[in-house]
Amino acid sequence: MEKTLSDYLKKHMVRLNNHIDLDAIVSEIGDSRYVLLGEASHGTSEFYTIRAELSKKLIQEKGFSFIAVEGDWPSCYRINRYIKGYYANQPQLDFLLKHSFTRWPSWMWANKEILDFTTWLKKHNDQQSGQKKVGFFGIDMYSLFESMEEIIRYLEKHDSERVESAKKAFSCFQPFQKDEQTYAMSAGYLSESCEDEVIKLLVEIQTNRDLYDEDPEGGLSLELNALVAAHAEHYYRSMVKGDTETWNMRDRHMAEAVERLMDFHGSDAKVIIWEHNTHIGDARATDMADEGMVNVCQLIRENHAPEDVFAVGFGTHRGTVIAGDEWGEPYKKIIVPPAPPDTWEGVFYAAGAHDQIIMLKQHHEKLQEVRGHRAIGVVYNPQFEHLGNYVPTSLSNRYDAFVFINHSNALHPL
């Protein structure tokens, strides 16, 4: 009989020695169509590499259609074009990553781990027919001005009748000099809003979507850029309030973007979603629910059968991470101190100072108590971890499986 929770984990966890051990998660995923793979930080190498290995297995063994990530649509769509061989003159991948992801923190996607994975995706897709090629799409909503520029660029080539409408909408934003923060202040405090213009443009593009049937994925990109522009405008206009609604706007947008991508890929589509634990772990199993916050996992779970959705959380006990001291500051490697014993990371460490996997559906009752669970963002100061880096979490209600990395290492930016 187990005396402690750590004793229970020691008995039931799967030791993670190599990538073959990830087969246990793939088997548990079964026929799920929505697989959400998290990360406890944006700057940990192991989170990226393990997600990549899991994704390769899901693509090869279970026929997953595309990967949706916590990145901007225009930047990720360039990578999607590369891995599908759409460029007439293929650029160098490292050059493409470094010059596509310019919004801070660029190191989230312009890193060696993504370079290695997208290289694999390109080789995989080269062996597939058109509809079988795996996509790579960004579902975030920060790229207001870049998405507007992409809309105009596409319409100039494919739909001259609607170019003027797009340019008129974009002209509303010109006084703000492509600065989202400036627009946020003006729209929030001075009511200088471009809402009507972007909503009209979105409706016009959606209404005329059949015009782009000869270039279906280009039409999809046009529609998603228009959706980003409409939702980002609302987001930045509301940002000055500083309440939970801006968080909810963002996660509702990401969930809607996933569903539009699923519709585009057909009734048999399957998606792998890469985001921070705070997005892919059910908000209802954390203190986010007390604040009225929702997230991507919650929204997808609410709209689909339980067997269709599988969420994998990640955590680390100690190591190093890439992050900034403040928003917009240059990245640096930061030491992640050992997690306190009473946190989930501390409990897993006590069960064994090695990497582990636990299937939470199989041990739901035993692992649903609430404990702190480490979350590191793009800004991190380990001296103040105890003040805000541990999210009260019911582990088995938040995820369906959990990957524990005993000692993790910092990401490798290009």
UniProtKB/TrEMBL annotation:
GO biological process, one term: response to antibiotic
Pfam families recorded: Erythro_esteras
Source organism per UniProt: Fictibacillus arsenicus
Protein name listed in UniProt: Protein-L-isoaspartate O-methyltransferase
Gene3D superfamilies membership: Biosynthetic Protein domain, EreA-like (biosynthetic domain), EreA-like, domain 2
Keyword hit for Acyltransferase: no
Keyword terms, alphabetized: Methyltransferase, Transferase
Molecular function in Gene Ontology: methyltransferase activity
